[in-house]
Amino acid sequence: MSNAVLHLTNATIFQKENLILDDVTVSIEKGEFVYLIGKTGAGKSSFMKTLYGDLPLQKGEGNIVGFDLAKLKEKDIPFLRRKLGVVFQDFKLLNDRTVQDNLRFVLKATGWKDKKEMELKIDEVLQKVGMKTKSFKYPYQLSGGEQQRVAIARALLNDPELILADEPTGNLDPQTSVEVMQVLKEINANGNTILMATHDYALILKYPSKTLKCDENQIFEVVQKTV
């Protein structure tokens, strides 16, 4: 377990008083690429929200990037999120700011002060996702795929120990989905650990990897060919 960035034991996840997932025991090792699949409403988003502190872990044990989820306090959440990179389905970019300013905003919010260091970091992450030449554009001037690349760059800013990608290709056409997936796979090949919730089985078949399934209030690992 020494290399686990995420480890849950007998965890139970509720949304208000509704039981969503019961008796969850999962582990993700440093450097892994893991899919989280399941029908809409099966609990994928609730699971992700528990991992980044949006839903409390009320029962069981959970450790993510060194934080104890069962004991997580409100004041700890910003520090937890600095060690996570979160990529959402709907990008969540600020439309009134350029790509560069979107990223600068996050760096300032997470305690960066040195302007030169900030510029170097922004250049570095945009280079990684192939968006360095678009840094002066506004999000509404970009395609969906380009916006998602920027969202991935934003997730990389604080060198996260784990990237949580919640349906990152959900709003994209098949070709663009493949392009975004290639970016994620390259980032994973460079050492980033990624947990990606998806219902896009075509991507899973094209890029097979460890797969966890949410079904009937459980999460379990599935063998690739039975997906």
From TrEMBL:
Q: What organism is listed for this UniProt entry?
A: Patiriisocius marinus
Query: What are its GO cellular component terms?
Result: plasma membrane
| One example GO MF annotation | ATP hydrolysis activity
Checking SUPFAM superfamilies in the record gives: P-loop containing nucleoside triphosphate hydrolases
* Function, in words: Part of the ABC transporter FtsEX involved in cellular division. Important for assembly or stability of the septal ring.
Record's keyword terms, sorted: ATP-binding, Nucleotide-binding, Transport
Record-linked PANTHER family: CELL DIVISION ATP-BINDING PROTEIN FTSE, IMPORT ATP-BINDING PROTEIN
**InterPro entries associated with the record:** AAA+_ATPase (IPR003593), ABC_transporter-like_ATP-bd (IPR003439), ABC_transporter-like_CS (IPR017871), ABC_transpr_LolD-like (IPR015854), MacB-like_ATP-bd (IPR017911), P-loop_NTPase (IPR027417)
Where in this chain does the record put each ABC transporter domain?
6-227
- Fetch the Pfam families from UniProt: ABC_tran (PF00005)
Q: What is this protein called?
A: Cell division ATP-binding protein FtsE
Q: Which gene encodes it?
A: ftsE
Family that this chain belongs to: Belongs to the ABC transporter superfamily.
